[in-house]
Amino acid sequence: xxxxxxxxxxxxxxxxxxxxxxGVRFTLAANPSKLFKIxxxxxxxxxxxxxxxxxxxxxxxAEFFQIKGKATDILIYTRPGYAPLLxxxxxxxxxxxxxxxxxxxxxxxxxxxxxxxxxxxxxxxGVFTALYTVAFAxxxxxxxxxxxxxxxxxxxxxxxxxxxxWQTQEVMEMVALENLIISLTSAPLAILMAMAWLKLFNGAFxxxxxxxxxxxxxxxxxxxxxxxxxxxxAFLFSIxxxxxxxxxxxxxTATVPxxxxxx
Amino acid sequence: METxxxxxKVDKIYxxxxxxxxxxxxxxxxxxxxxxxxxxRGPSGSGKTTLLNLIxxxxxxxxxxxxxxxxxxxxxxxxxxSRIRQKTIGLIFQNFNLLxxxxxxxxxxxxxxxx
Lengths: 263, 115
Known about the structure:
The complex is a heterodimer of chains A (263) and B (115). Chain A contains nine helices and four strands, in the order E-H-E-E-H-E-H-H-H-H-H-H-H. In chain A, helix 5 runs parallel beside helix 8 (228-254) and helix 7 runs antiparallel to helix 8 (228-254). Chain A has two domains: 7-72, no CATH class; 126-261, no CATH class. Helices cover 56% and strands 9% of the residues of chain A. Chain A has a four-stranded mixed sheet. Chain A has 263 residues and is of the alpha+beta class. With 115 residues, chain B is of the alpha+beta class. The A-B interface holds A 153, 156-157, 159-168, 170, 255, 257-260, 262 and B 53, 56, 58-60, 78-79, 82-83, 85-87, 91, 97-100, 110-111, 113-114.
C-alpha cells in the first residue's frame, strides 16, 4: 500500500482543516522526530468515520508510538466466508498461549463489528429522537411567542376580563390552564412532526444539528426510535417555554388598569 | 339624600411629564345621589369617558379621591377594585369591548363566571 517509509493517507476532514495537499510533509506533537509524507486522501460516505483518520504502515505506527513489534489492533482481510473461521482460530491460539503482561486478545469479525455498530446506533437513536422531538416541541411555542401571535388581541382580552371583575390571580390561572392545554397538544404534535420528518425526509436539514458533519441530507438512514421519554421531554420543555413566555407578559398586562390594557 | 358616588378634586393626566402630556380631567368634584339617573354631557374630548372610567374603577386618577358609598376607593388595591367591578358596578363600553371568541350570550354571562 505504501511505497516508502513515512507515507500516510489522511482523512478529508483533516486535509480540509489544515489545507493539506499531496506531497506535504509533517510531524505530530506526540513524536516530532517521526516525519510523515501525505500520499493520498481517505474519503468515505460518512465523513464522521473518515474526517480525522491518518492511515499509515504498521512499521511507521510502531515507530511513532514507540511500541515496536506490538500492535493494539490488526485488520486482516480473508477470502469471503473465512472470517469467522479465522477469528475462531486466532482466538483459540491466543488462549492456548496466554501472555500475562498483555491484555487478553479480542477477535472480532465483520459481522460482529456490524452488530456493535448497529447496537451503538440503536442506542443513539433514542437520544437523537429525543433531541428532534424536543427541537420541534420548542419550535412550536417559540414560534408562537416570538411571532407575537395574537399579542394585541390578548392584551385587550385580558383588559376586558379584568374590567368585568376577574382578579389578576384568576387571569393567571386561566392563562396557565391554556398553556397546559397547548403544551399537551404540542407534545404529540411535535412527536408526529419528528416522526414524519425522520421517516419521510430522513431528517433532512435538521439532522446535521445532532450528528456532526453529515450535511443537509444525511448519506445514510438517520437512526430513529420512538420512546415515551421524548414525549415527556416534549411536554416538559414546551410547557416551560410557554409558561415563561406568556405568564410574565400576562401578569404585566393584568396588573395595569384595565382601560390601559384595552387601549 | 344619600350620596352613592362622589369625586373630590380628581385629576387625570395622560403621558404625565412627557411633551405629549394631556390633562383630561382637572379638579373634578361631582356628587351622584342614590336612585338618580345622571347624564354627563360635553363636547368630544371633554373627558366624559375618562370620568366614567375612573368612577367604574377601570382606571386610576392621577390626583384626587373617588368615594363609593362613602369609602375612598382611589386608594384601593387591585384585588379590592376587581371585587368592586365584580359585585357593585356595571359598565357598558362605548365600543362594547366584546370577547370575539365567545358567542353573544357568553359575553353577557362572562362577568358572572368568577362568582
